[in-house]
Amino acid sequence: MIIKEISIRKMKMMMKTPFSTSFGTLQEKDFLVLEVTDEFGNTGWGESVAFRAPWYTEETLETNLHMIKDFLIPLVIGIEIEHPDEVSTLFAPIRRNNMAKAAVEGAIWDLYAKRNKLTLAQALGGEQERIEVGISIGIHDNHADLVTTVRGFIDKGYKRIKVKIKPGHDIEVIRELRKHFPDVPLMADANSAYTLEDVELLKQLDAFDLMMIEQPLAYDDIIDHAVLQRQLTTPICLDESILSLEDARKAIELGSTKIINVKIGRVGGLTEAKKIHDYCMEQGIPVWCGGMLEAGIGRAHNIALTTLPNFILPGDTAGSSHYWKQDIITPEVVVEDGYITVPTAYGIGYEPDFGAMDQFTVDKMYFKGSCK
Ligand code: OSB
Ligand code: MG
Question: Helices 245-254 and 270-283, interaxial angle, to 10°?
Answer without folding.
Answer: 20
